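Lab meeting, item 3. Inverse folding demo.
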């Protein structure tokens, strides 16, 4: 009876986790759209203070990402994710009572650590909640729901910004806090039978073995190359807006259109782009295709600067569509690489290490855009396209399993002479 119930329990666990991802994204989309206004208008912080706080949060979350992965391997990703969601809820609830800048620094830094840790924990949980062949596809569903939740939350935040009331901003913060409590309850509810049996964590391992990821050259190379290919994020959020603002023939409203277009495409097609992507080799090829698509996007963007406005807008939207497909293939490839190359007993520390590439991209990405696109113009777009194209090509190479050296044939030994006497 227990074996017959296992698939049903697995489906319920995966469904609960998907709903938790959507609830998390809904609250986050609502909060992110008003957070800076809340900090400055309600808490009375200066723009420089907000910038310092967010930078410190990013640095601290980067430094603690791998240690949280080590801890998650020991106690179990589900317990860690529940704890992260509850910590996010409690810290958000503290925001309206921040008495000054030092307290704000503490809250925003701890919140940044919990936020950054959540993504690899979710991926690790899907590795437990579904079968090996369905892991990447499940992550595709989760990302589609995440984008939908962020979009709906952002739309709801528009009403809050229109009211421009301190009470409304506080309500938004508390609503996000409640969403994390609900997400934690859903994650806890989805515990599988296997996790109940072993406590959801791994056995004791020497710290040297848990940190063996730092000596894994292939995984490190793929982490770096994936980080470069994932510059599609910076292209959409920084490159395109700065490019539009620098060309007065392009309407400013097209910036909002690009974000809507990206969201719609990802929601509709992310699951489809995961088909056939399971192994690290599949993931490397997906990164190569992503680099090709993003390279095409960069070439199209370079051409928009010389075209009449109607044609430039059409080409820019076409470029953003290419960017969206590059994003989806890069995500599918990254999930496959993480699942295939991470050892089962050290999965979370490997996934956390892989996430370092995304955290680093958020730091160097804007600098790349500023140096190449802002200063170099169309030529910069072409250089950026060549960079991501090359990174994707190398990712496909490193994604292939290293060749196993051929075992030399055993030497043929002469049979002993069992005859008696001399020959």
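The presenter then showed the designed sequence:
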């Amino acid at each position: 009876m227990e074996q017959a119930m296992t698939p049903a329990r697995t489906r319920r666990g995966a469904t609960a986790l998907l709903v938790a991802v959507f609830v998390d994204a809904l609250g986050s989309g609502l909060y992110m759209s008003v957070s800076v206004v809340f900090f400055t208008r309600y808490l009375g912080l200066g723009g420089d203070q907000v910038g310092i706080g967010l930078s410190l949060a990013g640095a601290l979350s980067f430094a603690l990402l791998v240690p949280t992965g080590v801890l998650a391997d020991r106690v179990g990703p589900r317990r860690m994710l529940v704890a992260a969601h509850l910590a996010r809820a409690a810290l958000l609830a503290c925001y309206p009572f921040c008495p000054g800048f030092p307290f704000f620094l503490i809250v925003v830094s701890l919140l940044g650590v919990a936020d950054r840790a959540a993504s690899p924990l979710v991926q690790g949980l899907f590795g437990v909640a579904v079968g090996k062949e369905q892991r990447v596809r499940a992550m595709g569903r989760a990302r589609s729901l995440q984008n939908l939740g962020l979009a709906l939350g952002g739309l709801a935040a528009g009403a809050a910004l229109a009211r421009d009331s301190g009470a409304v901003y506080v309500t938004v913060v508390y609503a996000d806090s409640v969403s994390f409590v609900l997400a934690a309850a859903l994650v806890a509810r989805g515990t599988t039978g296997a996790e109940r049996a072993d406590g959801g964590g791994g056995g004791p391992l020497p710290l040297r073995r848990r940190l063996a990821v730092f000596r894994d050259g292939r995984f490190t190379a793929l982490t770096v190359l994936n980080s470069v290919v994932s510059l599609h994020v910076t292209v959409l959020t920084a490159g395109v807006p700065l490019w539009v603002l620098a060309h007065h023939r392009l309407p400013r409203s097209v910036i909002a259109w690009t974000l809507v277009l990206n969201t719609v495409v990802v929601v509709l097609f992310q699951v489809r782009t995961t088909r056939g992507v399971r192994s690290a080799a599949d993931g490397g090829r997906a990164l190569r295709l992503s680099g090709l698509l993003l390279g095409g996007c960069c070439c199209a963007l370079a051409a928009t600067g010389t075209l009449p406005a109607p044609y430039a807008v059409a080409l820019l939207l076409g470029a953003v569509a290419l960017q969206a497909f590059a994003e989806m293939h890069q995500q599918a490839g990254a999930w496959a690489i993480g699942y295939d190359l991470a050892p089962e007993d050290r999965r979370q520390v490997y996934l956390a290490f892989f996430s370092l590439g995304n955290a680093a991209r958020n730091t160097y990405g804007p600098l790349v855009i500023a140096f190449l696109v802002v200063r170099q113009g169309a030529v910069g777009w072409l250089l950026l396209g060549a960079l991501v194209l090359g990174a994707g090509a190398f990712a496909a190479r490193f994604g292939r399993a290293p060749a196993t050296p051929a075992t030399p044939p055993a030497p043929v030994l002469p049979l002993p002479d069992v005859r008696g006497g001399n020959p």
